[in-house]
């Protein structure tokens, strides 16, 4: 795999991760932060895929599976927490 | 040949992820941000996983990559729906340029009651909707 493409993809995904973290830090309300958290999880799953191609170790895909699963469960949990009206300090 | 295909898929996936991140940082309110992230984020991950499947081209890896894609495509809309619903009910302010808010006439933010518009008790409906409009005008979401 050409190192140029891999590095470019890493750079783009890192920039995306940085922008997601900015929204996570400053997002005005809790649902904004939950959306940013979901985006960060899916970007990290992408980075795991790129890293699997980079190193040639296919076992990294299991990490991506677990990450996608926990991100979904976290989103559902946060949404139920919000709808039930739990205590929150945006 | 495979290298060109994998490179193109990786670059497209990363570009979609970057687009989603730019969208979440630039767009003005919760539903528009979700509009940016859920679709292009899921598609970006799916493209990167397709690239992984083409790169390794083994049965075990392809199966896992397809499992990830199926899982993401199944769960992303559900999570987006649930978060969007919770965000609207919690009262996250919409962008001031919003021109259409269909839930506004059928959701009462004080009683947290969502009417479908097909209720049986027809005489009660106009009164309830009038009260909803009055309640809506006061808090100014």
Description:
The complex is a heterodimer of chains A (90) and B (141). Chain A has helices at 3-26, 30-55, 60-84. By secondary structure, chain A is mostly helical. In chain A, helix 1 (3-26) runs antiparallel to helix 2 (30-55) and helix 2 (30-55) packs antiparallel against helix 3. Chain A is elongated. The termini of chain A are far apart. The longest helix of chain B has 32 residues, at 59-90. Chain B folds into two domains: 2-90, no CATH class; 102-137, no CATH class. In chain B, a hairpin with a 4-residue loop joins strand 1 (107-108) and strand 2. Chain B has helices spanning 2-26, 30-56, 59-90, 124-137; strands at residues 107-108, 113-114. The chains are: A mainly alpha (90), B mainly alpha (141). Chains A and B meet through helix 1, helix 2 and helix 3 of A and helix 1, helix 2 and helix 3 of B. Chain B: InterPro entries: PhaG_MnhG_YufB (IPR005133). Chain B: It holds the Pfam family PhaG_MnhG_YufB. Chain B: The chain crosses the membrane at residues 6-28, 40-57, 63-83.
Features:
heterodimer, A: 90 residues, mainly alpha, 83% helix, elongated, B: 2 domains, 4 helices, disordered C terminus
What's the number of structural domains of chain B? 2
How would you describe the oligomerization state of the chains in this entry?
A: heterodimer
The percentage helix of chain B is 55-70%
- Number of helical stretches of at least 4 residues of chain B: 4
Individual helix count of chain A: 3
Secondary structure category of chain A = mainly alpha
List low-confidence stretches of chain B.
123-141
Distance between the termini of chain B: 55 Å
Reported for the largest beta sheet of chain B, the result is: 2 strands, antiparallel
* Termini separation of chain A: 44 Å
The best one-word shape of chain B is: elongated
- Mind summarizing the main beta sheet of chain A? none
**Counted beta strands of chain A:** 0
**Proportion of beta-strand residues of chain A:** under 5%
Structural class of chain B: mainly alpha
* Shape category of chain A: elongated
- Main-sheet strand order of chain B equals 1-2
Output the helix-strand order of chain B.
HHHEEH
Pfam families (chain B): PhaG_MnhG_YufB
Biased composition (Basic residues) (chain B): 127-141
Organism (chain B): Methylophaga lonarensis MPL
Keywords (chain B): Membrane, Transmembrane, Transmembrane helix
């Amino acid at each position: 795999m050409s190192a140029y493409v891999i590095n470019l993809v890493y750079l783009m995904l890192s920039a995306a991760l940085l922008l997601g973290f900015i929204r996570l830090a400053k997002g005005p309300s809790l649902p904004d932060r939950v959306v940013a958290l979901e985006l960060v999880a899916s970007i990290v799953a992408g980075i795991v895929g790129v890293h699997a191609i980079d190193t040639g170790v296919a076992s990294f895909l299991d990490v991506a599976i677990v990450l996608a699963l926990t991100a979904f469960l976290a989103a559902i949990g946060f949404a139920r927490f919000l709808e039930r009206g739990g205590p929150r300090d945006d | 040949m495979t290298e060109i295909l994998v490179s193109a898929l990786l670059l497209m996936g990363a570009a979609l992820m970057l687009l989603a991140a730019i969208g979440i940082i630039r767009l003005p309110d919760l539903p528009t941000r979700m509009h940016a992230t859920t679709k292009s984020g899921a598609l970006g991950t799916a493209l990167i996983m397709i690239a992984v499947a083409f790169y390794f081209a083994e049965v075990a890896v392809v199966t896992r990559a397809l499992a990830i894609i199926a899982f993401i495509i199944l769960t992303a809309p559900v999570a987006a729906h649930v978060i969007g619903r919770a965000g609207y009910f919690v009262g996250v302010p919409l962008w001031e340029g919003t021109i259409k808010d269909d839930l506004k006439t059928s959701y009462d933010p004080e009683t947290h009651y969502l009417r479908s518009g097909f209720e049986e008790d027809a005489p009660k409906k106009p009164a309830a909707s009038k009260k909803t409009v009055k309640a809506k005008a006061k808090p100014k979401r």
